[in-house]
């Protein structure tokens, strides 16, 4: 009797799987209602016994959910979840629990594929909508987990990357169901429970765009570049200057030039009256971007003037004093450093260093600080005059000039990030950034080859004859080239590097001092010939192919990549943390002073009885506002899910209708073709064809 019940349960489970696979909703409903009930959930011991069984298979309370999720059938998943079917919970890749160890020992391939099947189930849009209160957040987190899994389990990398792409597209399609700006505002400003809340912004009903920042953090390019999201960002970006986009090109240029010329006056106006109508216009992200850009261009102008006002009389001064323009530059540098410190404080170290713009700014400001610090040290320590050729190689003034030159290069390269706002130059700037990453990968291979040939040539020529006539020249820069170039490791590196650009002649590799060195010259020629083939012909062509692939990859997704990069740049101007540009941001504004006094008074009053009551009331008000926002978010999310399901059903119906129409057309075409063939062959298709003679 027990074997019969087991056989019946097995047949019922198999029938349920077939019904789910065929997506027959009625049959699934009947089978679920007549499904034998299990007494209890299996324990670890029972699961271990099943795993050790040669006929081991997945438990039947999990397989139907996985199969229905693979089919992405919303109705069947709803029925299964109503039956309290257990949802699969995958273990980590490196999990060493008893169950995972037993599965790995029994069949590692089956265990890996079972994990992949579970993630296929969890990545199902229908399952996410049914089981998650915040489907967008779940899609973000799941895509990040799948991307990490693709780097760990490289054997199934394509499968995990495809699932991650599916989650990203689901979040994008869900956002596309928003029909007005109010719904977009609720979605993009929603803050999850584990994110820090801006209480002041919540009470003042400011836009924090927490969900959009989270999308950028999870690298959700499809979500950020979606049309609805970009339209909302445009509205916030221009703010009270929404009419700027509809102006003619000449008026746009005049507006930008006017703001760029009078930016110090505008900064002072905002510093004095930040809450006025004029101050609110300056506070818009678009105006902040222009004012900050004008301030940075002024800083670059001061750098150019620095070389023009250079005093030739102080050329041989070992410790020159700082000029007026030096103090102006120091003010700007302090302002830029203060801006980076504020951004680092509010964003955190990890998020701050993820932006290449912040990394470049950090290096540039550090170089400027080191430059002026060395100048002050040189001025306090050295007061003599001497020719520069007699100075020590690491004299503070010389080191400061070298650091200052390198910082100037970085200062102008920082303008590349302003190209992101342009639809023409932005994709080129993104392509250049991707190419630099590929060049870093190529550099690892090139340095290995360079090091290998450098060691060989140095060992070949380091015991050779040293010419006394060339003691004042170094390496390939000598007029009479010889093997003295390879007597040092650094000299060999320089020679091999410049050989790529045809600045080192092959004669330096094969020069002989006597007939006894003919074999040595031959070996040198073979080494340099091999180097020429490996580096000049193979590796350089490989680099060109890598750069072309990177450019083509960006060009194929140009619109998405550019909009995502532009959104990251725009978000840095949306908050009110860094409204004023350098050097005005180092001046304490009345708004900052009022906030400090208000915070101090609240802290003092919080220790009194009235202050405690007032604080409890404010906390209660804040909780009510947070609860109201969460309720609005749930209402909007329900609407988006309903519209998403409706659009899915419409697509399926249109596909089915198109399939039926195609079948009918195909049937008619086949019928016509059959009649034409019969007529051509001389057959009568009528039922009286037998009474007619054949031609």
TrEMBL record:
Describe the location of the Transient receptor ion channel domain by residue ranges: 95-157
Q: Which GO terms describe its cellular component?
A: plasma membrane
**Primary place of residence?**
membrane
Q: Keyword GTP-binding: yes or no?
A: no
Q: Which GO terms describe its molecular function?
A: calcium channel activity
Keywords, alphabetical: ANK repeat, Calcium, Calcium channel, Calcium transport, Cell membrane, Ion channel, Ion transport, Membrane, Phosphoprotein, Repeat, Transmembrane, Transmembrane helix, Transport
Q: Where in the cell is it found?
A: Cell membrane
Respond yes or no to whether keyword Lyase is given for this record.
no
UniProt xrefs under PANTHER family: SHORT TRANSIENT RECEPTOR POTENTIAL CHANNEL 1, TRANSIENT RECEPTOR POTENTIAL CHANNEL
By what name is this protein known?
Answer: RCG25837, isoform CRA_c
